[in-house]
Amino acid sequence: MNTRTIKLTLGIVSLLVLIAASGSFYILEEGMQGVIVQFGKPVGSTVSEAGLHVKLPFIQRILRFEKRLLIWDGDPNQIPTAGREFIWVDATARWRIVDPLTFLESVSSESGAQSRLDDIIDSVIRDLVSASPLVELVRSTTWQASESDIEGETPQELAEELMREIQLGRERMTRAILEEVRMMTPEYGIEVVDVRIKHLNYVQSVREKVYDRMISERNRIASRYRSTAYRTVQEIRGDADASATRIYGEAYGRDPEFYAFSRTLEEYKEKQNDSILLVLTTDSDFYQYLKSATPPPE
């Protein structure tokens, strides 16, 4: 074997050793965890420490999974409450992978886990919302209605709703959802850390009915105010007319002649209007005081 052949052989062997060596080491980044698979099957335990690690070259590979919190955002769902009010519920959750081996064998990837969480969280939220009155979802147990909240023209139905005792409230409701969800996720190697309801709203058809009811209620209250105001005006006018009649009567009783004179002068003033035409003779009583008046000396 000549020197050239030996060098070539050594070069090939060195290259193969280098490739094998490079395939034997891998780096696990901070915040990640890994599972070594051999021929598609997981082997060994989970690798959770960051740094440089060793595996068999060619036949083994490392699958990396997040150790940090991940976000789940579901699609808003239309759900009826216990009172049959249809509402949109938009929820979010935070979760993490706690058992990569179980996670790999059950859902394979983060997208598979998100899909499974869709089913679990949505079903739990639907069950609890359907079994609860709407007020339990929007109020907390620490909030209490004050007298100022229900004074004035507050409708009886609304006043009773404001004074209603809250059994769970929104915070406890979300905690109940979280506990229910956490019981169902360990079999997938997942831990759900938190579940929150981001947004609640009536569906469009119910929202329109609520607006119509609010408008009707405001119109009813406005009508009551107008009725009260009209009655007050009539009472004031009646009292004023009664007072005027009494005053006129007292004035007439003291001096009928002067009263007649004063009232006639008032009539003279009121009848000075271009839109009124009176046709009277000079012998009319209406002009008696004008006729008897003494003209000023020249």
Strand and helix map with partners:
Elements: H1 3-24, E1 25-28, E2 32-38, E3 41-47, E4 51-54, E5 60-66, E6 70-73, E7 77-80, E8 86-97, H2 100-106, H3 110-130, H4 134-138, H5 147-150, H6 156-162, H7 169-182, E9 190-202, H8 204-254, H9 256-270, H10 288-292
Antiparallel strand pairs: 1-4, 2-3, 2-5, 6-8, 7-8, 8-9
Summary, kept brief:
The chain is of the alpha+beta class and 298 residues long. It has 10 helices and 9 strands. Strands 6, 7, 8 and 9 form a 4-stranded antiparallel β-sheet that branches. A 3-stranded antiparallel β-sheet has the order 3-2-5, with helices on one face. Strands 1-4 form a two-stranded antiparallel ribbon.
CATH topology of the largest domain: Tetrahydropterin Synthase, Chain A
Q: Give helix % range.
A: 40-55%
**Distinct helical segment count:** 10
Number of strands: 9
Mean pLDDT: 78
How many domains make up the 3D coordinates?
3
Question: How large is the radius of gyration?
Answer: 46 Å
* N-to-C order of helices and strands: HEEEEEEEEHHHHHHEHHH
CATH architecture term of the largest domain: 2-Layer Sandwich
Quaternary assembly = single chain
Q: What profile does the largest beta sheet have?
A: 4 strands, antiparallel
Shape: rod-shaped
> Approximately what portion of the residues adopt beta-strand conformation?
15-25%
- Measured between the Cα atoms of the first and last residue, the distance is 166 Å
- Low-confidence regions: none
What structural class do the secondary elements suggest?
A: alpha+beta
At the fourth CATH level, what is the homologous superfamily of the largest domain? Band 7 domain
CATH class of the largest domain: Alpha Beta
